Amino acid sequence: MKKNILALALPAVMCAVALSACGAQPSGSPAPDGKPTQAQLTGTVVTNGSTSMEKVMGALIEGFRELEGGITVTYEPTGSGSGIEAASNGSADIGLASRSLKDAEKTDLTEVVVAKDGIAIVVNTANAVEDLTVEQVAAIARGELTNWSELGGADEAIAFIGREAGSGTRGAFEELTGTEDACRYSQELTSTGAVITAVSTTPGAIGYASLSSVEDTVKAVKIGGVACSEATVLDGSYAIQRPFVFAIPAGKELSTAAQAFYDFAADPANAGLYTLAGVVPANG
User: Fold this and answer.
1) What are the structural domains, with CATH classification, of the chain?
2) Is residue 183 within a helix (H) or strand (E), and if so which, with residue range?
3) Could you report the per-residue pLDDT of 151-196, keeping only the tens digit for each?
4) Which of 44, 59, 68, 117 has CB atoms 3.0–4.6 Å from 277's, for a disulfide?
5) DSSP state, 281?
6) Helix boundaries (H) for the chain
7) Contact, 80 vs 166, CB < 8 A?
């Protein structure tokens, strides 16, 4: 659903980004002070982390490539915990997390929120239930509600499906619903896409996924009467939402290439790339 929108709209945004950047200097020409222009930058930027940020990173990388063709940005979707560790040990320039950093992680890393994302609660499309409260979702996660008939649905067992330990999406879901270390999963999967697939093919299933990853193969239920959308995440009315974070080394300068990519990602002029990826830009 959102993939088609992104594919169609991204080229137009790229044109706008490129035009706004052209300004006074032709590509590859020296600046008046004799320093190289950004168009002359080269290098590689290694990013690593949240699988939920795949669409965001795809949009950012493609947009950045239009301006800085000499810089290669790589993205490994390894999970938030792995991305934070990679930024901490120096194997990645920028770690990607779909949750806030813990106090212990902030010892050597700085957290920069680049966007906000709703965590959609998704059910199988055959499920008649349309609306749940946060408390009901938590009770399902803890195994206190086990049949959809208890929630006005069919007499069918509930299968709670989620992410593996260390996932940013899982960590954010459990923190926001107050279910840390209490969830009883039917399946624990290693990617958001796998959760979507499992819910779509499992009768009675319920799970959680980044708003930007929700497809027509599942149904996102309302939470407290509020649908999960970019608008309700932005205005704060949707209760289950989390930040998308760049984790960068504290007290240490980024490489020239990594700094250029970070500046691009944080520039309000490029906020449209986040919107096209289905999330709400932090600056825009």
Assistant:
1) 2-116+243-281 (3.40.190.10), 117-241 (3.40.190.10)
2) none
3) 999 999 999 999 999 888 899 899 999 999 999 999 999 999 999 9
4) 59
5) E
6) 2-22, 54-67, 80-89, 134-141, 168-177, 192-201, 230-234, 256-266, 271-276
7) yes
Q: What is the pLDDT of residues 156-165, one digit of tens each?
A: 999 999 999 9
Percent of the chain surpassing pLDDT 70: 86
Question: In Å, how far are 62, 153, 244, 265 from 115, measured between CA atoms?
Answer: 17, 35, 5, 10
Hey, what are 227's tokens?
């649908």
Which H or E run includes 238? Answer: none
DSSP 104-167: TGGGTEEEEEEEEEEEEEEEETT----EE-HHHHHHHHTTS--BGGGGTS-S-B-EEEEEPTT-
- Tokens for 257, please give them: 């290439």
Dihedral in degrees, nearest 10, Cα atoms 41, 42, 44, 45 = 0
Beta bridge partners of 246: 96, 112
Q: How is residue 6 written in tokens?
A: 């992104």
